[in-house]
Every structure is written in structure tokens, then in C-alpha cells.
Amino acid sequence: MAAELPKGAFRGLAKIVAPLCFWMAAGWFAYAPMIERIYSSVDEVIDLEEIRMFSLTMGILCIAAGILLAFYGFTGKEPSDAEVKAIGHRQTLCHYCGDEVIPGDVECRKCGNTVTAKRT
């Protein structure tokens, strides 16, 4: 049985990828002028309309993805350290305080509440 990821588990990744999307958008917007310069320097004639349209479309999509990722990454609640730690170590957590419960224990050593043997 696979561990279920806590809500907000990918916020950190979104914070890293959002600026990269904006950087990619800048590259796409610069693509058509670069191609135009390359072809003009070798005296080749090319119809750039399709390249400009593709470049504009990709630039807009990268900006939209960057905005969505930035909104997701920088708003909302981060998962707690206990939730993330539980994924990596397959621990049993107390449902009341989130502390690790030693296998076989009936009550939590931190809060004293009775716990069930449900693993996360």
C-alpha cells in the first residue's frame, strides 16, 4: 500500500519551477527574432509567421504555467514536518498531536491519548 501524500506536498517544488517557467517564456519570446537574424545573416528567405505564432503561443503558455505554479506554491499551508517525515520513514503518527508512536504502544507518549494502529 503506497503512502498518501499530505496536502500541499508539492508546494516547495512549485516555488522552484514557477520562476523557471517565466525564464522559459522569455526564451520563447526571443526565439522568433533569433531565427529571423540567423536566416537573414545567411541570406536565406523564410516565412516567419508560423514561427512567430508558435513562439508567442509557447511564451503565453509558459507565463500562464508560471502564474499558476506561483499561486499554488506561495499560498496555502505547507505540510507539517511530521507529515513529511512519516512519508519517508513509514511511521505511525498520533492522530491528535502528530508525534511518532512507537509500534506496539497503545497511547501516545507526548499527549497521552489512545492511538490506533493505523499507519501513514
Task: Please give a structural write-up.
There is one protein chain. The protein is mainly α and 120 residues long. The mean pLDDT is 83. Helix 1 runs antiparallel to helix 2 (49-74). Helices cover 55% and strands 3% of the residues. The protein has helices at residues 11-41, 49-74, 81-89; strands at residues 92-93, 100-101. A two-stranded antiparallel ribbon has the order 1-2. The radius of gyration is 25 Å and the shape is rod-shaped.
Q: Which H/E pattern describes the elements?
A: HHHEE
In percent, how helical is the residue content?
55-70%
Number of strands: 2
What is the C-alpha radius of gyration, as a whole number of Å? 25 Å
**Total count of helical runs of at least 4 residues:** 3
Largest sheet: 2 strands, antiparallel
Low-pLDDT residue spans: none
Principal-axis shape: rod-shaped
Beta-strand content bin:
under 5%
Taken together, the total number of domains comes to 2
The helix/strand class is: mainly alpha
Oligomer: single chain
